[in-house]
């Protein structure tokens, strides 16, 4: 499936209130979003025909749009319903859901007050973000050449398309050296996240440490895993974490809708082994979303 271009597939996409043929879901080349990054999106997973934490994702989409100074012309409840409609129309049971909202082509300038706001939702089957082999032993990361910007210089708490260009550049840079993903620091030199997932470290004290999300997304999966850890009695500490502290970590893992809970085996010169806490939280997360132990999805919550 990965080799099939995304503009040439069978299926239906929910587009501005109706289902259209997949190949007809197009925008104009002079759309404001293409030139000025006035676009927000979400990434969601369906397990057993149910989209995990759908309403939280729809609410974040609406909030991200407001941060970029536009209003999506659908309520959170209507976006929820549209996501479900797109999922069912394509017969997807276990897969990925991508809502995206953007400014249209009515104006071609930095100012964009009179542009039409569009919303589309696509869904498709999608396996694990990283290969099963990589996840089993832990993926390899290298520190990125780009850094997360200050909240004073970018809308860092919105899931905005423009913020991901440095992720693409960073991921390409480390993939060219054989790594799976990049570790991104922030403008202060503190550990932030990977290119598309939050990061957790089990330190020598047996506690779970994770960066404070003051310049990157406080991920929905991140919050889910924090709750699961606390239910197990694992203390979770949110704080600033410097790169040199990686030498004190015993386990490291990433969390995200695409990544789910993914062990990390290597960051630069540091090595880690997926341990009891990582493996327990993988199991807990799979139960929470409705996966069984073989990785196949069952009835979701």
Annotate the secondary structure layout:
Layout: E1 12-15, E2 18-21, H1 32-36, E3 39-41, E4 44-47, E5 50-51, H2 54-67, H3 76-89, E6 95-103, E7 117-124, H4 132-137, E8 139-148, H5 165-175, E9 181-186, E10 191-194, E11 198-203, E12 208-211, H6 220-231, E13 236-239, E14 249-256, E15 260-267, E16 270-271, H7 276-289
Parallel strand pairs: 8-9, 8-15, 12-13
Antiparallel strand pairs: 1-2, 1-7, 3-6, 4-5, 4-6, 6-7, 9-10, 11-12, 11-14, 14-15, 15-16
Q: Report the radius of gyration as a whole number of Å.
A: 19 Å
Q: Any idea what the CATH superfamily of the largest domain is called?
A: D-amino Acid Aminotransferase, subunit A, domain 2
Describe the sheet with the most strands: 9 strands, mixed
Shape: globular
DSSP helical segment count: 7
Distance between the termini: 27 Å
Which runs of at least 5 residues are low in confidence (pLDDT < 50)? Answer: 293-301
Structural class by secondary-structure content: alpha+beta
**N to C succession of SSEs:** EEHEEEHHEEHEHEEEEHEEEEH
State the CATH architecture of the largest domain. Answer: Alpha-Beta Barrel
Proportion of strand residues: 25-35%
| Main CATH class of the largest domain | Alpha Beta
- Number of separate strands: 16
Fraction in helix: 25-40%
CATH topology of the largest domain: D-amino Acid Aminotransferase, Chain A, domain 2
**How many domain units?**
2
Mean pLDDT: 93
